[in-house]
Design goal:
CATH superfamily: Gcn5-related N-acetyltransferase (GNAT)
InterPro entries: Acyl_CoA_acyltransferase (IPR016181), GNAT_dom (IPR000182), YpeA/RimI_acetyltransf (IPR050680)
CATH topology: Aminopeptidase
Number of domains: 1
Pfam families: Acetyltransf_1
Distance between the termini: 24 Å
Strand content: 25-35%
Keywords: Acyltransferase, Transferase
Shape: globular
Organism: Enterococcus durans
CATH class: Alpha Beta
Number of helices: 5
Protein name: GNAT family N-acetyltransferase
Radius of gyration: 15 Å
CATH architecture: 3-Layer(aba) Sandwich
Largest sheet: 7 strands, mixed
Helix content: 25-40%
Structural class: alpha+beta
Length: about 150
């Protein structure tokens, strides 16, 4: 079941799974909105987005590791895309950024309609104090994808 993200009771474990920088998360949660996927009283997935002048940016998508592969991330994305399309003003696209070695995330984003538009070489090496590894590989480059709405 989808519910609006409660900023007073954030699912920190999930948010930190997708982004290891707690200060950055707090900044984009403070200025953003989002949804959670709940089963009973347990949050199994979360999505956070920010409303920019001409676009929306999805800042964080995370699903409980024990629930991955069951379509929760896809449902969160589709629900958010529908919500943003219905509420758009000057925004004409949704952007999302992820690591270049995040193959499952890249596949999911492309599957729901996002298209890769750029790569920021060494973004994670330059902007995070500790190395980040995904799928056994050092995460270096950031991929930006967009979906026109």
């Amino acid at each position: 079941m989808f519910t609006t993200l409660d900023k007073q009771h954030l699912p920190w474990k999930l948010l930190l799974d997708a982004d290891p920088d707690k200060e950055k998360i707090q900044m984009y949660v403070d200025t953003g909105s989002g949804f959670v996927w709940q089963v009973a009283d347990e949050i199994k997935g979360v999505i956070v987005y920010n409303n920019r002048e001409t676009e929306y940016e999805i800042m964080n998508v995370a699903v409980d590791p024990s629930e991955q592969g069951r379509g929760i991330g896809r449902q969160l994305l589709l629900h958010t895309i529908k919500h943003l399309r219905e509420g758009k003003n000057a925004q004409n696209k949704i952007i999302i950024r992820t690591g270049s070695v995040s193959s499952a995330a890249l596949h999911l984003y492309k599957k729901v309609g996002f298209v890769e538009v750029s790569r920021d070489i060494d973004y994670f090496v330059k902007n995070y104090p500790e190395p980040i590894y995904e799928n056994g590989e050092l995460l270096r480059d950031q991929v930006t994808l967009e979906l026109m709405i």
